[in-house]
Each structure stands twice: as C-alpha cells, then as structure tokens.
Amino acid sequence: MRELFRPAMNDRYTGADDSFPGQTRRGRFRGQTMETRAEPSGSLRFAVLGPVRAWRGEESIRTGAPQQRALLAALLLRGGRTATASELLDALWGETPPNTALAALRSYAFRLRKALGPDALVTDSGGYALKVEPDALDCAVVERLAAEAERVRPTDPGQARKLLATALDLWHGEPLAGLPGPYAETQRNRLAEWHIGLIEARLELDLELGAHAEAVSELTALSAEHPLRERLRALLMLALYRSGRQAEALGVFADTRRLLADELGIDPGAELADLHQRILEADPDLAAPVSAAPAAQEIVRPAQLPATVSDFTGRAAVVRELGRQLAEASDRGTEGGVMSVSAVAGIGGVGKTTLAVHVAHAVRDAFPDGQLYVDLQGTDARPADPEAVLGGFLRALGVSNPAIPESLAERAALYRSILDGRRVLALLDNAHDAAQIRQLLPGTPGCAALVTSRVRMVDLEGAHLVDLDVMSPEEALQLFTRIVGDERVSGERQAALDVVGACGFLPLAIRIAAARLAARRTWTVSVLARKLADQRRRLDELRAGDLAVKATFALGYGHLSPAQARAFRLLSLPDGPDISLEAAAAVLGLDPYETEELLEALVDISLIESAAPARYRFHDLLRLYARERAEQDETEAERCSALSRLLDFYLASAVGVYTWENPGDRVLDHLAPTTHPGLAFGSRDAALEWLFSEAQGLLAAVEQSAAGGCEGSARRAADLLFTAWDLMESGIHARQYEQAARALVEASYACSDTLVEGRSRLLVAQLLRMTGRFAEADEEARRAMVVGLAAEDPLTCSYAPNLRGIIAYKDRRYEECFQYHTSALQAFRSDGNKYGEGAALSNLSWAQLGMGNDEEAVNTGREVMAIYRELGAGFRLGNALYALSIPLTATGRLDEAFSCLTEALQVFRDARQQFWEGMTLFRLAEVHLAAERWRQSAAHVEQSLVILREVGGDWRTANALVVLGHALVGMHQPVRAVACWNDALGLFSGLGAPESQDVRLLLAQQTPSSAAG
Which of 395, 544, 758, 787 has its CA 20 to 30 A from that of 325? Predict the structure, then answer.
C-alpha cells in the first residue's frame, strides 16, 4: 500500500471538540487503541481544517477580521516555532505589503494576545510564537490518527479504516476558509491535497475490507471532482471490477486516457495501465479477499451529512438550544430515557437546512456511530416514500440488498434493531409532515433525530419544537457582508441595511442579493438597494442561478387547497402590519370559525405567522408573492370586494367605539352606511382596547382605500377617520393619521367628492393644530369650510369654524375667536348635535376670558359640564373639565381648577389620550405656579414635557418651558430658568409666534446678578 500522506507537523493532538455547553465529555475516538486524554477546563483549542476557529473550554473565542485570522493560522501551522515579523509580513501580504503592514501586524498580534491570553501568544526575538498545549490543534490529531492507521493496518485493517474515518471527520469544509494572503493560499492547497490523500487511503481500506460496492458511488463523485487524479480512477476501476462491472471498469480507463491526452497530452501512468491490463486478463489476484467481506449484520459507520457552509452566520441562541438537546440525547444511551427528536419549522428560505446541517456537524462527535441524512422532498408534488428512505438508510448501515425486507413495517423494525445500543444522528430534512417521518425515527436512547420542515409538527409526540424566524438586522448585515466583502459594504452601510431590509432579513434572499452583487464588480451596494426598492420587481430581482425566492415560495403554495390558496391571496391585500381574526374573516367573507381554521392551516405550513393569539401577519416577501398570485388568480372586482369588506368591518366597529365614547352623538347620523355589522363591545374599555390595537391596520386601510380607487371607498374611509378621531387626539398615531387624511384629500379630487374633501381637510387641519402648525391648520380649516358649505355637510360646516376659533384664540384674536365659536355653536344647534354644542361652548368660554369677561367664561364652562354629564360623555367630559380649569385658574379659584384638572387627567389616561394627558399636566403646573407651589409646578411641567416633546409640537413645548422657568425662579434657580426661556425663545422665534416677545421681556428682567444666583 502507498504510504499515508502526512504533512510536517510538530503538534500532538487527541481531538478537536465542537461540543456544546452541557455536553458530556467522553473519549473522542471510541474503539481506538490510543489513549484519550480529557482536556483541562478552560484550555485553548484551535481548528484550521475549515474556518479558523478558537475555543477556551466550551466557549468560542472571537478571532477577528480575516487578516487577523490569517495571522493566527500562520502561527498555528508553525507548531510553536517563532515566526519573524518579516516572515509574517510575507505570509499575510506577499512581496508588496502596504506601508501600514507592520503597524497592522502589531495590532493583530495585540488583539490576539488579548483574546487568547498573554501566555499563549508571546513575543520572541522580534517575532511571535503561539504556545499552546500539544493537543490543541485539529490538524495535529489528523496527523496522529493517520500515523496510527498506518501502523495498525497490517494486522487490523478495520481499525485502520476507523482511524482514518475519524480523522476525516475533523474536516469542516475548505481549510483556512476565507483567509487572505499567499501563505494561507499555499497552506490551503497543501491541506486540501492532504485531505484527498487521506480519502484515497481510506478508500483503499474500504476495498481491502470488501466494501467495493459501497465505495463505487463515492469514487464516482470524487473522480468527477478530481478528474486528473489517476489514483482515484484506479480505485474506481478496481471497485467496479470487484462489483462485477468489468465493462464499466474498462470504460473508466478509456475515459481517463482520452482526458489525459486532451488536457495534458500524456498517457495514463504505469499503475493505471497495469491495472487495465490485469482487468482484461481477469487476474484472480484482483478479486476481493473473501475473509474480509463484511457480514450482512455488520454496521458501517455512515457519514452522510452535507457540507456545512463556511459563512454560517448568527443563530447563536438556536444553535446552542439544538446542540444542547442533541448532545444530551446521546448521553441517554447510557443513562436510560427515550430517543430525542428536535423539529425545526419555518418559512421557505429562512435557513432551516443550513442551520440543521451546521448543528449536526457541530455535535457529530456525540454520535460516533454515524450520521444519516435524507432530503424528504416535502415541498415536491411527490414527497419521498418512507419505505424507500428506510431502504437507503439500511444500505448505509451495511445491510445488503437481499437482506432488506419488503414492507415498511419490517424495514422500520430492522432499522431500529440495528441502531439499538448505538449513537446515531438522523437528519431528516425538508419533511412533509409528521406521518412521513414517524417510521424514520431511531427507536432507542442514545440516538437522535433532527427534522426540518415548513410544517410545525405539533402532532409529533415528544418532539422539541423550534420555530426559526428571519435573521435580526445585525445578523442579516453580517451575512451580507461576509459574502460581498467588508470593503464594499463598509462605505455604504445604510445602503446595505436597505438591501437586507428589502430582503425581509430572509437568509435565502440575502444570499441571492449578495451573490448578485458579488458577481457584478461594477455595481455598488446602492445600485442593488435601488433595484430592490421597487416592490413590484423585488421578487424578480431576487434570483441568482438556480436560486430564486419566488420559486421557493411557489413550492409551498402549490400544496394548498383551493380555500387555503384563496385565503393566502386575499389576506395579502391589506397594507396593515398584521390582521386580526375578525378583520381577516371580513376580508374573506367567511365566519370567524372557518377563517381561523384556514389561517391556522397556513400558519402550520409557514406561509403566514401567528403574531399573537388571533392575530396574523405575512413575511414581507411572502406578502409580495401572495399579491402577485392575487393579481394573477383573482379578478380586480374580487380584490376590490375583499378590501371593501375590510373597510366596512373597520367602519362599523369604529362606530361602536365612538358610540361608547359619545353616546347619542348626531355625528353617527351623517356617516355612510355599511353592510358589515362590525364588532359589538361589552364595555368602553373593550372598545378602546380594540381601537388602539387595530390602529395601524385601520389607518393603513384608510390610506389604501384612498389610493386604490375602488368605487365608494373614499367616503367610507373619510368617515372611518372621523369616527377614529380618538387616535388622532391621542397623539400616538398622529403621523400615520395625517398621511391617511392627506391621501383622502387627494382621492377626493379623483372622485370629485366635496364632502370627502371637506371632512378630510378638517381632519388634516386638526392634526396640524395639535402639532403646533397653526398657520397651515387655519388655511386647511378655511378650505374645509368652503368645500363643506358647497357639499352642505353639517359636520364640516360646524367643526371647521370651531377649529378656526381655537386657532384665533391662540393668536390672541379674541373677537374673531368669539365670532367663529358663535357660528359653530349655531351650526351644531341647527344639527341637534349636543356634543358639538358642548365643544363650541367650551371654546367660547376661552374667547370670553380673552375679552375680559372672566365670570361669564366660568359660567359658560359650567354649562358645558352640565351638558356632558347629562350625555354621559367619557373623553369629552375630560375636555370640558380641562376647558373649565382655564377660567377658574384665571379668576383665582385654584382649588377648584386643581380638582377639575385632576379628574380630567384620569379621564384622559383611561381613554389613552396621551396628548391631552400632557396638556393636563401642563395646566396643573400652571395652577401650582399660581399658588406658588414651585416644586409641584416644576414636577408637573417636567412630566408634561416628556409627552409634549413627542406629540405636542414646538409651540406647546415652548409654553411648557416658559412655565418651568417661572417655577425654577421660585425655587431660586435663575440660571437654569434663563436657559429654559432661551430654549423657549428659540422655538417661538422659529414659529414666528407672538409669544417670543413675552419671553424676551422675561429674559430682560433677569439682571446679571439674579441670573448668577
């Protein structure tokens, strides 16, 4: 036999360990004659036969950037000998290092010393040396195992074969994966050559042991991968010949001779030519040794796991969770218990297979009797037959074809019998459902199964279920960067975040996008981001070679029943971030029970997600795919009908909320009729809970209705916004509310509906007032009045002048304010709108106060209180209490004002009115200020500022700062007070507000001595 290839290495090594925390330590090489040593706790370990990695005990160590890992690899492969700085510069950069190379080298060394510890990396004679334990490097153990295999081969070829198989298991992909520099490239080639040499040696032993039939498949693949390696061709010819396939063996020689002549212009070597001649002569010495043929019951150690990817990224928590489950499962073979099953579920493209293969490789030392793998083709039209899969598993475990039973039950029984007492991991990838895999599960403790599927296998008894979500933004960016390269991403980080965001943080989509960019050196990240920004083209852009996000989604869609497919399509149409069960039922036109059954089925097969109990959502890319299907498979009329049913549901339900807040309000008589009954709420709290939980979906439906152009939708959308007025006044959803209202203004032009325009402009004006944009608000309210009169809309004709009066009061135009509110009051009374009458009277009291009629203002405020208490108003009662507090404070009735505001504050908090909560805290601060309770005033105004800075706008923030300054002066903190007033002056001046002059007077009154404290 040819001598086993070994590199020159000084390290001695007993085993690399990828075990997870909590994994029991055992001898690394079961059945070996060599001594197995336990690693000291916290000792350093390294791997170079794949990505360069390092551990301290069970904890992974970050080894830094590629250049830094290249330095680590160069030191590791010197076997503890010192490398000079010059040698390391050549290793990392070659003959033309950059000017900063020496500084960079020192920086890398410093970081490695910090990560590994001062005793590991030492400076010696102007260079560096890595001092590690003799058993700390994976390639050293391979050298030792190869030497041991060579020593025992003459007397125990079976043991030699096991030793080589164990050595080959230590490879984890391409050696020194991803490392730059000429040294890494040279060593990568050397280690790859060593690897294939060891494989050839192990295959020689396979043939020597009579496993020629089993070796044919592997040799065929290897010969195709390394077409010019004559030794592999020779082994393939011998395996074929011993398998009774003489013609194929001769065909291999003919193919090899032609290939060598075409590629190198040479003939096959003497060894291959001699073997060819011996096969022609049927040399009896070529026959397999009879004594070495394995019995039917002998177990072969399968190693079927696919290669793991070198750029595996993130998923740390899930990797630890699965690794711990599987590692502990192996221990049950000695401790008793049951066989372990872990099932990973998730949408197509989320990385289930990549994760499972990575974890399986990491824990395979816990399963020394082998690892089985099968793609169960669960998304294909014909998933893999369990009977055929078991046949493949049995052959992999050494059972000859004649010994494999015919029936599924008998195959499963034999499979479990063979695995009894052994530690084998079965990776069942891409399963269709639990029924497909039940007979494929090992039956004894010590074995484990790791399953991936788009179906959440809740019916798989005793399984540990893991739902795999998309990556976090940080993980997604890291994966994208590892594929594209840091140099292309570092200068365009925001564009890279836009790319992974457009990919929905889905690993498959990120890989495709990154692969496209990596293949196009003239593209920047920004170019790719712009291409993916177009939602209608995004799925078509996410295609590279035979990978395509759309094709992955199509596999799952193709298995849906007609009812499920319709639900999948129609539920993608609403723009909200998620959807409730009741809203989904409206979209589909079904009852909630039937809808829930459909939605839960879609959740089980990972086409939608359950965001919370009775709430559902799409992944962004799946939504785009579902909408494409809806455009192809649903008529425009049906798509419009689905969205119309949703709008009806929201409007009818919002009317129910409005009724609880404003019982008997005439506003409800001026709304468009709906065909959907909406939800019935048992209490005011339940109604408000629904409104605020549905806010994003409801407002998205309004904006979508405005843009969609479905007939009749703009009127109902405007009425929905009106009945959801509480969302606007809370301040929480002001931005989205304003977008929806402005969209309706634009839609009103398209449908020539002045009623919609008037109501929409009124809502825009109210939002502008709340956020302190008073001039814009007044203009929108003026235009709303004009179109409202043209449309003869009682709502716009009454609420618009009321709003203009509020703005006039703010600008100290008290006479004009009085006129607007008087006009609004008449319009509300003409319509029989008692709620509106109360609102107009509240504001009228402020006009009276501004005009110097203080007692009249107080009396008007009390009249409003009587109206609202009679109506049983909720939130509006808070408004009345708040309004009354202003004239009460002005007339010195501070205790009564404080009582009103305290009650109002509770009303607003119960109604989730954050804006009004902030304003009430501000007014309480004014009451305390008037009573010279400085500390209480400062405390309340500070609380109000937290809210008003978010939802109140600059004008209200500036007013609060003025009050805070007064309170601080009372607390003998004039310097801080001046700072507050300067901030307020800046805000008022920026707005062109008249209050700026008042603040200037305050600042002028602060003498230098008083400001100095």
Answer: 395
Q: Is residue 119 located within the same domain as residue 162?
A: no
* pLDDT single digits (tens) 226-274: 888 888 888 888 887 887 778 777 877 887 888 888 888 888 888 888 8
Pairing of strands 83-84, 579-580: unpaired
Q: How far apart are CA 950 and CA 100, in angstroms?
A: 48
433 and 391 within one domain: yes
For residue 659, give the nearest of 627, 683, 694, 638 by alpha carbon. Answer: 683
Q: From CA 820, how far away is CA 799, in angstroms rounded?
A: 10
- What is the CATH classification number for the domain harbouring 877? 1.25.40.10
Phi/psi of residue 322, each to 5°?
Answer: -70, -40
Q: How far is CA 838 from CA 167, 572, 873, in A?
A: 86, 43, 11
- Whether residue 495 lies inside any domain: the answer is yes
Residue 852: give the domain boundaries.
Answer: 833-912
Q: DSSP for 11-47?
A: ---S----PPTTPPP--SSTT-SS---PPPTT-EEEE
Bridge partners of residue 428, in order along the sequence? 374, 451
Question: Which residue type sits at 425?
Answer: L
What pTM does this model have?
Answer: 0.60
| Pick from 558, 562, 598, 566: nearest CA to 348 | 558
The owner of tokens 């890319």 is: 621
- CA distances 997 to 203, 813, 962, 990, 1008, Å, are 93, 16, 12, 13, 20
From 515, 542, 569, the end of a domain falls on 542
Are residues 322 and 454 both part of a single domain? yes
Q: What angle do CA 239, 241, 246 make, to 5 degrees?
A: 140
Distance CA 415, CA 409 (A): 10
Whether 379 and 285 map to the same domain: the answer is: no
* Tally of domains in the chain: 6
User: Residue 850 to residues 809, 841, 853: CA-CA distances in angstroms?
Assistant: 8, 14, 7
Phi, psi at residue 170, to the nearest 5°? -80, -10
Within a domain: residue 782? no
| Class of residue 41 by CB neighbours under 10 A (exposed 0-12, middle 13-18, buried 19+) | exposed
> Domain holding 422: CATH number?
3.40.50.300
In angstroms, what CA-CA distances link 984 with 688, 774, 940, 987, 1010?
Answer: 35, 17, 17, 5, 19
H runs (alpha helix) in 792-933: 794-810, 814-831, 834-850, 854-871, 875-890, 894-910, 914-930
> Are 275 and 339 in the same domain?
no
pLDDT tens-digit series, residues 52-77: 888 887 788 888 888 888 888 888 88
pLDDT band at 338 (very low <50, low <70, confident <90, very high): low
Q: Do 80 and 116 sit in the same domain of this protein?
A: yes
Task: Name the band, by pLDDT with cuts 50, 70 and 90, for residue 48.
Answer: confident
Residue 812 placed within a domain = no
User: What are φ and ψ of residue 58, in 5° steps?
Assistant: -95, -5
Tokens of 712: 């009749």
- Provide the pLDDT confidence category of residue 666 given band limits of 50, 70 and 90: confident
In sign, the C-alpha dihedral spanning 669, 672, 676, 682 is: negative
Q: Which residues of 364-403 are buried (b: 16+ CB within 10 A; e: fewer)?
A: bbbbbbbbbbbbbbbbeeebbebbebbbbbbbbbbbeeee
Tokens linked to 716: 């109902």
In a domain, 672, yes or no: no
pLDDT at 12 over 50: no
Q: Is the pLDDT of residue 10 over 70?
A: no
Residue identified by tokens 């505001």 is 901
pLDDT digit string (tens) for 309-320?
777 888 888 998
Largest CA-CA distance found in the chain, in angstroms, rounded:
125
Return the pLDDT at 290: 52
SS3 1: coil
The domain boundary, picked from 860, 894, 912, lies at 912
